[in-house]
Every structure is written in structure tokens, then in C-alpha cells.
Amino acid sequence: MLLVVSDNDLGNYFETGQTDIFTIETFDIGKINRLLIGHTNEGLRAGWFLDSVQIWVPVHGVQYMFPSHRWLCKDEADGKVEVEIYPSETLEIEKLINYEVTVVTGDVWAGGTNANVFLQIYGEEGKTELIQLKSRSNNFERGTTEIFRIEGLDVGRVYKIRIGHDGSGIGAGWFLEKVDVKRLVMAMVKPEKKEEDKKDKKKKKKKKEEEEESPGELKEVVRTFSFPCGRWLARDEEDGEILVELRAEDYEDLEENSYEVHVFTGDMMGAGTDASVFIDVYGEMGDTGERKLRKSNHLNKFERGQEDEFTITAMDLGLLKKLRIRHDNKQANAAWYLDRVEIFDTKDETMYFFPCQRWLAVDEDDGQLGRELVPVDEAFMKRDEDEEEESSPAQLGLEQKAMSTTFTMRVKTGEKKNAGTDANVYSILYGTKDDTGIINLKASKNHRNKFELGLTDEFTIEAVDIGKLKRIRIGHDNAGASPGWFLDWVEIDAPSLGQLLRFPCGRWLDKGKDDGAIVRDLYPNELQTVLYTPFVPYEIKIFTSDVFAAGTDADVFIILYGQNGVCSSQKSLCVNKRERRMYFERGAEDMFIVEGSETAIFPCEGWLARSEEDGETIRELVPSDIIVEKLSRDGTLKVIETEVDDALEIHTYTVTVTTGDVYGAGTDANVFITLYGDMGDTGERKLSKSENSNKFERGSVDTFTLEAVDLGQVFKIRIRHDNSLLSADWYLEQVEVLDQDTEEVFLFLCERWLSRKKEDRRIDRVFYVKGYEGERETAFCPIKKVTNLDSNMNKKNKKRHSEEEDEEGSLIPYHFSVTTGSDRDAGTSSRIYVIIIGKKNKKTDRLWLDSGGKSAFLPGSLDYFTCYGSDVGDIKKVQLGHDGATPESCWLVDELTVDVPTKAVRYVFPCKCWLAKDRGDGLTARFLDVQDAETVNISQKVIYEVTVITGEMQHAGTDTQIYMTVFGVYGTSEEMLLPKLEDRFERGQKDTFNLEIEDIAPLRKMRMRIDGSGSRPDWFLEKIELHNLQTDEVALFMYEEWLSRSFGPKRTLICEMPAVINDEEMVELTTYTVSVKTSDVTAAGTDANVWMIIFGENGDTGTLTLKESNNTNKFERKQTDTFRFPDVLSLGELSKVRVWHDNSGPAAGWHLEYVDVHDDILGKKFRFQCDRWLAKNEDDGQIMRELACANNDAVDFDEKTKYEILVTTADSSDAETKENAWIVLEGKKGRSKEFVMENSTKKKRFLRGATDRFEFSSKELGDIASICLGHIPKDGKKVKVEASWFVEEVVVTEKELGNKYIFRCDAAIPLSSKRDEFQTFECSKFIESFTSKAQSLVPVKYELIVITGDEKGAGTDANVFITIFGSNGDSGQRQLTKKFQNLFERGQTNRFILELLDLGDLLRMHVEHDNSGLSPGWLLSRIEITNTANAVTTIFICGKWLDKNKADGKIKRVIYPKY
User: Fold this and answer.
1) Which residues on neighbouring strands pair with residue 260, listed in sequence order?
2) How many other CB atoms sit within 10 Å of the CB of residue 801?
3) Which is the most buried residue in 116, 487, 613, 1079, by most CB within 10 A?
4) pLDDT: which is higher, 779 or 51
5) Quick check: 780 pLDDT over 70?
6) Collapsing DSSP states into helix, strand and coil, what is residue 1257?
7) How far apart are CA 409 and CA 412, in angstroms?
């Protein structure tokens, strides 16, 4: 297909930055999968850079986007001049069908026209848009018949059309003969009969029978609707109309009707208009279309207090539903106050009343030039006449408001050069039922100069019943000096529907740019749709008193309160200053409508003034009477008035504010408070009148009085200041609220700074009443244990329940880190999301990566997020995308890592691709496959619910950094920072949150440390509770003391607490006596400061300072120094000590012979032999040594050892067996004999869900790698029936050392008498015992190779430190230094040797530097560590900066090995 003639005819096709539009007709090929596009390579400069192709297929209701971004040129890129491209996205658009319209112009003199002709088709299922009939030839000439192919909505059976022209050009008058509309419909078609020969009589009979049965087949047939016209459409012929409605010939029910329209202009200053007025009347049978009101009974139409009468001829509309009336705002005095419209239906002889009583003006009311009016009952109008006085237009307003939808439209002009426009912008909203018609966007609520660069303009639009919004059209009239406009997006908020839709555009509306279009259709982007609770309209009437100076021009606002303290948001009653001047005058009665007819009266009779009465400008009112009005058909009104007897009372609250007695505590700023009770809140009140003239001074107590409707139990307060004046910082001690009516006192302990300089720099805080038990706003604990209260529920139910829970999947944490590319425009402001997909397409919800107000995804940045999503099992794919729909929102993503700590795995996805509509392949979301990712094993973690309780005493709360370390039987957790999150760890508070802690349970003890930073560094810790959500085990840690340098007896920032599980302490206190023997070698002694850490079964002691010795001069040659450490939690059996010094003093080198540690409780001495130097210039230059315990001699394995075997049978009906089983263990040192696990009738084994224990002796096998399981008949006979035994898991424990080997089987083992039929299982988890670990602690030399990256500024001058973690413990922090060498330069490889006790398998490492020197930033490529004893090399790949000014600004990294 050749693209020859474009629709938007920009003259020269395919020019730089231009969009050309073509319409092509072909047969239906269904869904489009790919597109071949090319050119003939003829002419000068034939090379062409094709950006993208868009294809709309209205008949299918889809739009395809094909990105190309490449040259089609013989001498560029790959030299191709044609290319196959694939769609990046398919969007749903409105589905249309094809119509063929035949127009016959009459053969009369001057019958033809040059005007633009429009057509609209009405059917039983709706109407098409107004469609212009035009083609490239000279249309509508005398006596011609023309055929137009148009696309429109499927309107079902066509019953009328409206056709007309705009009267432009010379000789506009047109004689229209007739119109035919053809469309395809599905219908039953009878097969045609054929004439048969006489021979076929018998056959014929059979056929007849068949024919009677089948009514025919469903086929597409063409249906034609004819519309005879035979009349002039001309200003100067017949009735002067240039628009006519025609009825379909075969639609008998419809007749023509004429409507008399009476328009009443209001009787007030400036009410009349000279603008053109347009009206569109809607009924059950369609609408009249927009008609200009031309011929009135008055020469000068729409003057003040005048009634104008017009006649509209149209097909009968049935009952009238609504009308839309607007003016075009042309001429000088365009503003128009419309009182009402009355329409008389001449056929039914009924009168319809459409009250309006509002302005249609840019600078009055809400600035709308169009109104949709609904008919009201005659009784309503009658009632007005009876009362004779100005009746309440309000009641009406409310009825209309309830029937109409108010849309707030926000239009964002792009940030490009010359993006703004001076043209007149209009819009049409299309709903599923109807559209709003043309709305001129004249009155922006927030800017006088509309549609300027980067501005967002807000407009109000009211429409009656248009259904759900499906698209909008927005355009301009190309008027003014610079009409070109770059529109970024349009947002439409409908409070009564409770939805906010975003329509992205991101294109020019400019005759000279893009495709030259100045009107665009936009569709909502579902990712940006927000749903919320819908609003309902209220009508509010305010009576200003008739006393001197009672009126006001201030901004008056209102908040309504309902049951249970539910309240509306604060609404201002006037939109702008002009309205404020108009309303609230002395003695006036003002009516407002704020988003059945029940009226509640709220008496006030008091001043809202700073200078009158009590000086308050906010009052709370309670209803005194409720009036219900019922209107009967004859127009009489029944009024029922009831007094409100259970109204809330007004209470007086005394608020006592105590400012703290610390330096700089007082403030001169204005302070505001809000009280919240279970029956509502007071709204924000300023604390202005105190007994003290100078409020909020250091150590002072200020008392204030507030009047408010009864709040019930006050449970929280919000207090803030406005940071004004010089010394705004304020330390708030406490707030006491006294309810004078009930004499209840509510105490709020605050003890916090409200300051832009101190703590977390907040000047707005929320406090909860002392002893508050409920849920706090900031409590973030997404994963909770579901505990069933009914513990004796029958098993079956429980089973079913847990299965259902599995279906839903429990919540687990996912950690994401995202690296944005470093290109200048790589960053994005769109919202980013991730979806994790597992097996069988099980997936999480959209996890939005929200940065909480901080700017994220900047070029070159590295951002971290934690989201909670459902557990999808094994991850197969990850979808990464963003909600930006305009070309501006492009994002270049470098790398995404996903950590799943509960599965001990990290996936690193190298992306290096654009997520953008106009870059690369045009996708804004991609699927990343796990097979392309690098998988890294990280530490397995378990989720705990942590509860921290801070003491109830003065200054107990803190804003310091709090760190927690947990010790368990199977290792030690990392040191974890407990996040403060605004108001955790405050006086008397109980904070609950989730933490991910390594799987080391059962827990033994906990160490808490604070770093003494912050404005309030002291903390009184009561206790901490850890609840393991996997095993449901709870451990309690009691402290009940200060962590502080200035309070309490201990004056320490660090504490250790034993775990209390089921009221039993897991570890007890002991006294360690440490004896240090310095060797008998020349210059063996040292004057440096020495420290030590002792390691044992229950973790470590933390750093012990060797300070108070029995000798005054410590660590001299051949001397033994003894140190006592009382009240230390016992470590049980000891494994090693780490000892080091700080190399200070004149003779720092130290030769250490041994260390002895005596545990008083165990009554046992542990010897740690050293016989080495700790000196920079002796031996290997290390001043830190780890010494293994000499007591742990190797266990002799000459004799046999015992193995305990636990076998768990699956919990399903067919899992169990009555026969025997056998097992063989295969270890690194050998293979065991076959061991039969017998099943006897007395002692039944292998029952459903049971765990059976066996023991047998064998030679020592070393580490067990795998097991073989067999299943044999008891009597050794042949197997007759197929049977199998389903094993869930096998646990083998070696009794001598206590090492545990776990085998996850989950397999059926078939019954077989043959010994060579068995199943083999690999070891899935190995738990090494403490004894075994302690035995393997031998000194090993590790070779470290550190490779610095090869980029500009990659090298560092800072000091680098490293800590290596292995299965046997960690190395401690070691500095990497070499004498006289410039280390860690760009592209350099540095080698170090460290002697450490064998760490076992290396699990992770910490690398950090101290940020010293001129250029401390460091790009670390990788570190390779080789254990020289077994020649195993572990590679740690980093590839990230350790730089305060790059990526995420971290100078410490945790790196996991790549195997």
C-alpha cells in the first residue's frame, strides 16, 4: 500500500519532526502483529529517519504503537530502506463501525452548496458524533449523488438523522433531495430455493422437512435506511433553517414536533447579553442537537427582565429530560444571568420548567458559560408564585446538584519553550451515556493568564448524567498571536463519583508542529487512576445578623461532622475575593451548595471576631431543630419540625502547656493545637490567650481555654507552630487537657523538640494520651501473626483454613535497589512499580516504589525500597514499569536488584534499557526473566514482630540511633538500626514493628547499643519482646534501666539482656577472670591500650577493655596481668578470643604468650595459646590476633560413633506404610552399612504425619552428603500390589559432635523386594554444632586481591577496612594497609595476606572507608579471597562507588559472594 495522500495535508510529507496521517482501506486482517514499512529510495536526500508509526483501527477499537527510531537510508546505519517493526503497546480506543452515506442534491436552479455539511445519526442505542461530510472533490453540486464512507458509534437501528450546513461560502443555500445511510447488520438469511427436476421428488421431500427446521443462517447483510428530504436548507428560502431533522422511512412511531422555547433573563444589574446563545434539548428519544436561538419575538434578544420566545422544530423527543444552554462569550457585554427556561411541547401540550437562577459568565459565579438544567415539578414554580416573595432558589440548586456531576478539570501545559498558548481552549467530555458538548475553558480558578508554560489551570465543569468518562477531546481555535500549545496532561476529578482520572497527552496542538492538529482525543491512563469515597452535596444557608459591622469579607469555611467523629474536609464557601465581597453582608441570607431534603438548624448568635467577645474566629455549632419538608402533588407543603434532644453539648476544655526546662526551650512562634476524641475533633485552634503575657517561655506553664462540642474521650492531639520570629525552636514538655464539664484529665507526655534544627526537624507533631493502647498512625507492622482464639478447633477445619491461607499467600518483604542510568535525561518523575511473578503466573499486586516525598530516580542515582507483597514461591519473572504515559516521562534503568531475605536469595537484573514511549522499543514496562539475572545467596532471614517498651519517667524518650544485635544457638545477627520513624521510642510508649533477623533461633541473648547522638541522647529501656512469626516463639528481654552517659547507675551506652523464653532465662550471669601472660622475649611488653572479645556458644562478650589489672604497669615482659569482669552473661563453652591494641605509646609492639579465661559459674578454665607478636614491624605486621581455645582437643574417632535418624512421613491419606524401610548414609569419609528401620505390629511406624526415631552405630563417615532410602516388604516376599511410602523429610544427627544434616525428600518410595531399587537425596541443610565449629578453628592464611575500578576518579586516599563473615564466625574489622605503597589507585590490583582462624565457607563481607584524604570516593570493582589451606577462592563482586557524593552516598557496602 502506498502512502500518497495524507489527511492532515501539511504540504510536504515526511519532514523533520513532523507527523503525517493517512487513511487506508483494506480487507480485515484481524489483530496486527507486525508492520513492514519502507521507501523507494528515489529522489534527492532519500534517506529517512523514521521515529514511530501509530495505527488506529476504529472498527476493532484498538490503537497500535510501532516504535522505530532508526534510519531507512542507503548510507546510514545498516543501509536498509525497509524494516519490519513490532508493536510496543496496544491501547483500547472507542470501537466504531462503518456507515455508507449517500447524499442526493436536488436538480433545481442554484441547488448546490459550497458550505461545510454536517451529519449526526441517531439510533435506538445512542448517537454518533457530529461528522463533517467532505472529500477531495467539489461536493454537493446541483443534481449530484455523492457517497461518503464514515466511521461512527454503533447506534443500533437508525431512526433519525440531523443534517445541516454552516452557511459559509458564496451561494450557501442547498436543496437536499434525500439521504441514504447503509450499514452492515447480522441477520438470518433463508437459503435460496432451486428449481428441481421431477426425478428428485423423493429428495425434495426430505429437503422440505429440513427447510422447515432451519430458519436460515446468520449472515452479515447490508441494511439501508432512507431519509427523504426534498427541501431547501437556506437562510433565504422556506423557513430560513439550514439544519433539518429527518425520520427514517420505515420508523413509523416518530413524528415531527415543534417546541416553543421561552427564555427568561433575570432582572438584575447587567443581566442581559449580546452573545449568541445555543440550546440543546434532551428527551427520551435523543436530542435536538445544538441549535442557535436566532428568531425571537424581540429584536434585541436576552435583555434584562425580558422573555424571549423561539420555535425549534425536531423529531419528537418524548418526555424531556434536560437541556443544555450556553453562549459563545462574544461581543462586549457577554455576561448573562439566566432566570429560567420554559419549553412548551405543542404535540403533548405540556409545559416543562427548567429553573437556572445563575450567571453564565467568565467573571461571575463559578465561571462557566454553559449550564445543564433539569426540569422540575410545576408545584415548585407554583409555590414560588404563592409566596410572592423571593423564594429559595437553594432548594432547587440542591436538586439540580444531586442530579448533576461536578468535574474539576486540571490542565497542565508542558515545560517546553513556547509551550503556552493565547488561543481559546475548549473541551468536550465523552461519557458512556452522553457527552457534555463544547465547553469553553475560560475561567481558570488559579491563574489570570491561562495555559502558560508549566502552569496547571483548574476549571469547574457541571454535567447531567453522562455516565462513566471514557475519553475527552481538547482543542483550541488557533486564535491570538502565538496559538501553538504543548499540552502535557489533563486530570479530571469527579468527587460525586469518587474518581480521579489522568489523561496523558505530551504533544503539540499547533498547526506548524507534530501532525498539525489543534484538537486531540485523549484516553485515561489506568495506572494513574485514583479511586476514593464519593462525596454528596449539602446546601448551606448562612444568616448574618443585623447589627452594626456584622458583615465580613474574610474567607469563610465550614466543616460538617457526622456520626463517630466522621467529618468532611474544610470547604471554603467563596471561590474568590470577588465573591467574598458579595456575600456575608449585614442582615444578608446567603445560600451555598457544598458537596432527602432534610434541614438542620444550627443557631450561633455570636461574633466571629478577634476584637469582640472571646476573640475566637472559629465556632462549633450543634443542631437545635430538624425540619423535614414534604411536597405533595397539588403544590401544598407539609412541614414537620422536630427538636433535637440528644444534641452534643458544648464543653469547655482547659489546655495546659508546659514548656521544658532546657536551654533554648522557649518559642515566640504561633502555636496551634487540634484535639481528637472518639466523637470528633476540634479543628485546628490557635493558642492565643494565656495567663502569661509572654507565652511558651522556658520552664513556664501556660493555660488556654477552648470551647468545643463534646469530644468524648480525648485520645490524641496534634500540635504545631508556624516557625515564625527569631527563636522559633520549642521544647514541649507536656500538655494536659481538662474537660471542665466532666472533670476528666487527659495527660499527653511530649518531651520533644518542635524545631527545624533539632531532632528530625519537624515542627508538627502528634501525641497520644498516656497509656494509649490503640493503633498509632505511624505504627507500621504489615506482617502480623494470625492467632486463632479457638485452640481446640478440630484438625480438619484447621487444615482447610491453612490451605486457604496458602492460596492467598502470606506477605513477605521484598527489597529493591534501582540504579538509574547516568545520561543527562535518564531520570524520571513518574511513579515506578514492580510486579513479582512466580510459578503458574502467581503474582504480587503492583508494588509501587514510593520514595516518600524524596526525589528518586535521578540520573546516576541508586535508590532503595522495601515493599510487602504476597509470597509467590519461586520467582520466575519480574515486571518493572512506570505510569508515565507522555513521551516526556522517559527513564533509563541500569540495574534492578530484588532481595528476598525469607528465601535467602538476591536477583540482580542487568537492564541497561529505556522505559519510554519514544526511546528504544517504546515500552514503559518490561518483563525481566530470572534466567537472565545473576542469582546471589544472601543470609536467610525470618520475620519477627518486635515490641519495644520505653520506660514511664521523665526524659525517658530518645531520638538517638538505636542498634540491636541478637545472639542465638546458630549464630549472631547483624547489628540492626531500629528506625525512629517520627515518634517511636518515646516515654511510656509501646512500639511494634517488623524486623528481618537471621535464622539463628533458639535465641540466647540480645545486645542493645545507642550511639549517643541526637538532641535527646538518653533512653530508658524497659523491655523488648521478639515474636518469631514462623515458629510463634516469643522471647522476652528485660532491662529496666537507663542507656545514658548522664542518668542511671551504670552510665553506659550498651547493654546485654538474656532471653526469657517460657519464663526461663536462657543464659545466666557469671564473672570472667582473664589472665594475660606476656612472653619472656626482648621488648615483649607494651604500653598500648589493649582490648579483647571472648567468643563462645552463646555469642560474644562485646569489646572488653583490659584496663583495671592487679599490676599498675600492665603487659610488661614475663608478667601475668589479671582482669575481672563481673556480671557478664555466660557464653558457655568458649571457642576463641580476639585480642588487639591501638599501637599507641613509645614501645607498642607486644609479644603475647597466652590468655586464660576462667568462668566462675562453670568453674572451668579455658586456655588460648598465642606465642606471636602483635606489632606493626614484627612477624606479619598484624596488631590483631584471634586465638583458638586449646581445650577443644580433637575428638578421637577410632571407635564407632552413633547416628540418630528422625523420619517424618507425609500428612496425607496414602502416605503411610506397614512395611519396613532401610537407609544408607554416604559421607565424605565413607559409606555406612545398610540399616533396616523395622515396622512391627506392637510398635507401628511410618504412620501418616508421624515422626519416628531410630539410632544406629557406624564407623565415622565425616560430613554426610547424601542418603539412600529403600522400602521393602517385611517378610521378604515378592511384591504383588503396587504400594509406596511418602517421605517428607529425614534428619540425621551425629551424636558425638552434634552436627545435624537435614534432607527434604517430599517423594514417594515404591515398595520393592529388590535391593537395588531405592531413592537418593542430597543434603538440603547442614547445621554445624558449636563443638564441631570450635574444633575447626585453626589459623589459616587468606590472600586478598582488591581490584579498583577503571573509571575517572575511581581511586581513593582513604583508609579501607574489611570484615569477612564465614560459617565459623567473623574476622573482626581489619584495616588493609601496606608500608610505603599508594594503594587503591584507578585500575590497580592490590594483594594482602591476612592470618585468621578458619572462617569456614565465606558468606559475606563488609567493606568501608573512613572518608579521609583529598579524594576519598572509591569505585571498588571486586575482591577475591583465597583460603591458602584448601586453595578455595571466593569472588565478591561489588562494581559500585563508596562515595558520599555518588549513587546512594554510602561508604560502607555489604557484598555477597558469587559462586
Assistant:
1) 311, 344
2) 13
3) 487
4) 51
5) no
6) strand
7) 10
What cell does 1228 get?
565424605
* Burial annotation 97-110 (CB, 10 A radius, 16+ → b, else e): bebebebbbbeeee
649 and 680 Cβ atoms separated by less than 8 Å: no
Q: What's the pLDDT score for residue 782?
A: 67
Strand, coil or helix: 25: coil
Q: Are 1295 and 1281 in contact (CB under 8 A)?
A: no
Q: Which residues, 6+ apart, have CB-to-CB distance to 646 below 8 Å?
A: none
Give 874: exposed, middle or buried? Use CB within 10 Å, 0-12, 13-18, 19+: exposed
Q: State the amino acid at position 43 in one-letter form.
A: G
Residues 166, 115: contact at Cβ < 8 Å?
yes
Determine whether 456 is exposed, middle or buried from the number of CB atoms within 10 Å of its CB (0-12, 13-18, 19+): middle
Asked if 1455 and 938 touch (Cβ cutoff 8 Å), the reply is: no
739 Cβ partners below 8 Å, 6+ apart? 651, 652, 653, 711, 714, 745, 746
Q: Taking the C-alpha atoms of 862, 865, 869 and 873 in order, what is their torsion angle to the nearest 10 degrees?
A: 40
Q: How many whole angstroms separate alpha carbon 157 and alpha carbon 170?
A: 37
- Picking from 172-186, 288-302, 354-368, which range would have the lowest pLDDT averaged per residue? 354-368
C-beta separation of 126 from 156 below 8 A = yes
Q: Give the integer Cα–Cα distance in Å for 958 and 759.
A: 9
Spatial neighbors of 965 by CB under 8 A, at least 6 apart, are 972, 973, 974, 975, 976, 1006, 1007, 1009
**Gap between the Cα atoms of 3 and 12, Å rounded:** 13
Nearest C-alpha neighbor of 106 from the set 140, 142, 139: 142
Q: Which residue has the cell 592490590?
A: 1390
Cα–Cα distance for residue pair 1346/1383, rounded to 1 Å? 10
Q: What is the pLDDT of residues 341-397, one digit of tens each?
A: 999 999 988 899 998 888 898 888 778 888 888 888 776 665 555 444 444 444 555
Work out the pLDDT band at 797, boundaries 50, 70, 90: very low
The residues pairing with 1436 across neighbouring beta strands, listed in sequence order, are 1423, 1457
Residues 161/246, Cβ–Cβ less than 8 Å = yes
Backbone angles phi, psi at 1113, to 5 degrees: -95, 110
Contact between 369 and 442 under an 8 Å Cβ cutoff? The reply is yes
Q: How far apart are the first and last CA of the chain?
A: 56
Is the pTM higher than 0.70? The answer reads yes
State the cell numbers at 470: 471514557
| DSSP string computed for 793-835 | --HHHHHHHHHHHHHH--EEEEEEEEEEP-STT----SPEEEE
At 1222, the amino acid letter reads W
Mean pLDDT of 1371-1390: 91
- Return the C-alpha torsion angle 578, 580, 582, 588, nearest 10: 170
Q: C-alpha dihedral over 758, 760, 766, 769, to 10 degrees?
A: -80
Instruction: Report yes or no: 1105 and 1093 within 8 Å, Cβ to Cβ.
Output: no
Tell me if residue 39 falls in helix, strand or coil.
coil
Number of H helices, E strands in the chain: 6, 96
Residue 1391 has a CB neighbour count (10 Å cut-off) of: 10
Specify the long-range contacts of residues 385-388, CB closer than 8 Å, at least 24 apart.
386/635
- Comparing CA positions, the residue from 1235, 1212, 1386, 1397 lying closest to residue 1306 is 1212
**3-class DSSP string for 835-890:** EEEEHHHCECCCEEECCCCCCCCCCCCEEEEEEEEECCCCEEEEEEEECCCCCCCC
Q: What pLDDT is recorded for position 379?
A: 62
Cβ count near 1326 (within 10 Å): 14
